[in-house]
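[#protein-structures] MJ: dropping Phenol degradation protein meta here for a structure pass
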Amino acid sequence: MRINSVRLLPWLVSVAVSCLTLPASANDLPAVNLGATSFLDGLPPAGSGWYAQQYFEYYTAGRINDNAGNGVPLPKQDIDIFAGITQLTYQSPLAFATAHPGLNLMLPWIASAHVDDGLGNAALSAQNGIGDLLIGPFIQFDPVMAANGPRFAQRVEFQFIVPTGAYDPRKAINPGSHFWSFNPYWAATVWLTPKWTVSWRLHYLWNATNHEPATALAPDVTSSQAGQAVHVNVAAEYEVRPGLRIGLNGYWLRQITDMKANGVDVPGTREAVWAIGPGAMYSFSQQDHVFFNSYFERDARNRPQGTRVVLRYVHHFN
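AK: finished. structure tokens for Phenol degradation protein meta:
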């Protein structure tokens, strides 16, 4: 899901919200992974084979910040979104040295998007529907082992965002972005002790040109290109008893180049946000796991600042 830039009175207001792994963005950033993944991210829980994962996310915000971090001049700034991602993963048992190839397929969707700008949704409007398909070939490395279990595990994925989702340039919130993106990442987990781990997933984002940009940009804008960005998920957890882990999780996003309109940089359009909150993971067995993560956003720039809750279920097929 994404949120287009919006022109309001004499101001150009950039707004964005994240839909799960995936957020959306005001300066045309596509939906990306902000907080969807967390604990033990560097290693699949049951080794090679097929995995199905289902994510559910609720995002709510009552504040939309401008480039200086101040609230935009809208009578209301209410956003409530319920969305999800359906994911299918295959990791091959074949190994090249210590590396296993695999493939991720992910399909996000918006079930409900409610916005209220206090102006009859003249500035904020939304549509539900299916989002952009994510295709990610990856390499999973065997964990580095110690006497008491694994010490370090990592994975590299080369993820592409394919513009297959619903998109309307007149809408502020869309399930799809209408342009291609490349969003590779490096995920890793370190076991500080057999029960205490730290994990991260570091992403880089590059976006192609949108030849049907948001109509709110300006009548003479015929193309736009979202800026490049870096974003990371981090998490630390402790196994309080067999099967139950609790900890802290967070994310950080920083857009590192300006968006372009008609090939020209538009200053003051870079997004930023960070968030932190509690989380938990419960393992019913080695094949079935459920994650619960919540996030409270801070220091947002050119996007909403709100609260995100993610529920994720993972199943490994024997």
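MJ: nice. The radius of gyration is 19 Å.
AK: one more thing. The mean pLDDT is 90.
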